[in-house]
Amino acid sequence: MISFENVTKLFGDLVAVDGVSFTVQKGEAFALLGPNGAGKTTLVRMLLGFSRSSAGNIRIHGLPAGKPASRRKLGYLAENHRIPPYLSGWEYLMRHAAFCGLNGARARTAAGDMLQRVGMQGQERKKASHYSKGMVQRIGLAAALLGDPELLVLDEPVSGLDPLGMRDIRILLETFKTRGGTLLLNSHLLSEVERLCDSVAIMNKGRIVVKGGLAKIVQENETLEAVFIRHVEGGTE
């Protein structure tokens, strides 16, 4: 469903992404891990067509990333997601519903369902200026799920959520996965990755230093945190 083939991204003399290759199969939950500045968000931005790679190929459903056709049936939640403060959560979702080709009763039904699933029913008429960071994240995830996407790309989806909110979002993503959806997750929370994901890639300094099935990467009596620390903080290349 997603393929990165020898992808490189340069910002002047800075090599932000250096020859990255991996695939995410249909129905897979894949986590992209790494410290700040590793290149994770840059990869996501190139996948979505917000930025162009300097070299290599990125494809979604076999189509070049950045083409409108490749983004059909794709939901996205950005890191540090924002809602215009003058919009209510409901108004924001209605705008996203229109982007998904939903209108009228279909849009209202889909938005109402999403609000219930993310635990924001009863809060949707408030202006975003009155929302907490966690409430903004919940509305953002509801928007990402509108249109029944086959692929979800989430950049730090539980940012700003308390433990209860994190649990709710995890359950929602587990349901999405059970229904056959494909998930690409960029996260710092290793415990959530271990609960949700089938495969991982760990980035450091623009390169993939570890990738593969989670069960194979995490050896007996070892945790994902230990693998992460050994390859990132330990400097293993």
Your description of this structure?
The radius of gyration is 18 Å and the shape is globular. The model has no long low-confidence stretch (mean pLDDT 90). Strand 4 (55-60) and strand 5 form a beta hairpin. It has a 6-stranded mixed beta sheet, with helices on both faces. The chain contains 8 helices and 10 strands. It is of the alpha/beta class and 237 residues long. The protein folds into 2 domains: 1-73 and 150-237, P-loop containing nucleotide triphosphate hydrolases (Rossmann fold, 3-Layer(aba) Sandwich); 83-149, no CATH class. The protein has helices at 40-47, 89-99, 104-117, 133-145, 163-178, 190-196, 214-217, 224-233; strands at residues 2-11, 14-24, 29-33, 55-60, 63-64, 74-77, 151-155, 182-186, 199-204, 207-213.
CATH architectural type of the largest domain = 3-Layer(aba) Sandwich
- Bulk shape: globular
N-to-C series of helices and strands: EEEHEEEHHHEHEHEEHH
CATH class of the largest domain: Alpha Beta
Computed Rg: 18 Å
Helix count from the secondary structure assignment: 8
- Major beta sheet, specifics? 6 strands, mixed
Beta-strand content: 25-35%
Q: How many strand elements?
A: 10
